[in-house]
Every structure is written in structure tokens, then in C-alpha cells.
Amino acid sequence: MTPSPPQTFGQATPETPIERAKQPAAQLIVGQASSRGAGEAFPLNISLSNAPAGATIGINGLAAGSTLTVGRASGAGGWRLMATELRDALVRPPQGFVGAMELGLELRLANDNVADLKTLRLEWVAPAVAQATRPAFVVRHMGSDEVAALVKRGEGFIASGDFASARLVLQRAAEAGEAQAALLLAGTYDPIALEKLGLQGPTADIEKARTWYERARELGSAAAPGRLQLLAGRDR
């Protein structure tokens, strides 16, 4: 009897064929996408894992009028591109588009077999409307006699050319709700009023002038609207 040849552990025999290692499955990898402004081009945040040569990506669910920067249209709301084109792919929505698109993604191999399916949500939002901020005015509580005294002192400081002191006392009276004080205070910043007085020393500030004229108007000053109109003409 002829002895059998020795076998090495794990060595294949005619009864135990060698199994071929399985190739990892091709996959779509979808990244998280932040929103974009109305009508802006949106990067297609997709990558591929283990995709063989010749793979393509199909997209459906595009809003009417949308296009991609690469690939070609494929039916209503659809698009198809090569895997090699992904890095340059941007979704271009219709002009001014606001809303969301729920896109269906399909990875096909070169033999047209579907390897993976995923979804991707892209959202376009309207720009936020800037809200004009109004200055917050301090509100002081004081008696009418004290307010009147502050206004009189402010007028005296203006007459003597001491605008720094005038601004201090008039602002206190304006914060107590005195329309005339707010009007006078605005005048100490108003370049038009200062030019009429022939004054060069005081520093004009058109924004502060406008702010206090608006406050004077709110407090009931009949002269404030006309002053504001003159300032508006100065801006042009």
C-alpha cells in the first residue's frame, strides 16, 4: 500500500477548492449638506466607495428647471453623470429658487446593475431680512421744573458756544421726554445748523443729529420733520 503524501495544514486538496476573496460592494456615501441661499449652486456632496471603472450615478427628484454642471439630463427631473465627474458636480436650481429637493440617488455599474440606492436632501432658504435697529433711549424721570431748568441751561451754553456742556444737559432733558431739548440737542450735531451759525469748533455728527431729530419728532416737535428733510437732502 502506497502511503499518502503528507498534507500541510490549510493546504487546498482536490476536495477543498480555493475560495476567491469577495470584492467589497460599491457604495454611495452621502455627506451632510448645509443650506444655500436662494438660487445658489449647491455642491453635490456625494462620494463613492469601491466603485469600479464605468460606474454612473443617476439622480431624480430635481425641481423643474434645475441642471447640473456635469453629466446630462435623463427624463423629467432626472440627471445622469459618470462617477469620475462627481467632484465637479453642482446642482443649479431655477433662478431665485427657495425650498427643498429630496433627491433619489442610484449607483449603476458598467453592466447596468444597480449597486446602491441613497437619498439626499438639498435646501435653499430665502435671505434674512435685515431689521433696522433703533437706538435705545434712556428714560429719565424728573420734575417739569428740573427739565425746564436743564433746557434753559442748555440754551445758555449754546449761546456762549459751549456745545460740550450744552449736549450734556440737553441730553438729560431729552431723556426725560422734553421735545424741545431733543430738538436743541440734535441741532448741536447738525452740520446745516452749525454752518448757519458760522461755527467751526463743534464737531458735527449727521447720524446723531438724525437720531435726536427723530426722537424730537416722536416727542411731538413740529420742527423736527423739516430738519430731518433737510438732513436727507444733505445726504444726497
What is this entry, summarized?
It contains six helices and eleven strands. The chain is an alpha+beta fold. Strand 7 (72-73) and strand 8 form a beta hairpin.
Fraction of residues in β-strands: 15-25%
Tally of alpha and pi helices: 6
- Termini separation comes to 116 Å
Sketch the topology as an H/E string, one letter per element: EEEEEEEEEEEHHHHHH
As residue ranges, the low-confidence spans are none
Could you characterize the architecture of this molecule?
There is one protein chain. The protein is of the alpha+beta class. The protein folds into two domains: 27-125, Sandwich (Immunoglobulin-like), CATH 2.60.40; 144-235, Tetratricopeptide repeat domain (Serine Threonine Protein Phosphatase 5, Tetratricopeptide repeat). It has helices at residues 144-159, 163-175, 179-187, 191-196, 206-218, 224-235, and strands at residues 27-30, 36-37, 42-43, 46-49, 56-60, 67-68, 72-73, 78-82, 90-92, 99-108, 114-125. Strand 7 (72-73) and strand 8 (78-82) form a beta hairpin. The protein starts with 26 loop residues before the first strand and ends with a helix.
Keyword list:
Immunoglobulin-like, alpha+beta, 2 domains, 6-stranded mixed beta sheet, 236 residues
Task: Lay out the secondary structure.
Elements: E1 27-30, E2 36-37, E3 42-43, E4 46-49, E5 56-60, E6 67-68, E7 72-73, E8 78-82, E9 90-92, E10 99-108, E11 114-125, H1 144-159, H2 163-175, H3 179-187, H4 191-196, H5 206-218, H6 224-235
Parallel strand pairs: 2-11
Antiparallel strand pairs: 1-4, 3-9, 5-8, 5-10, 6-9, 7-8, 10-11
Helix pairs in contact: 1-2, 2-3, 3-5, 5-6
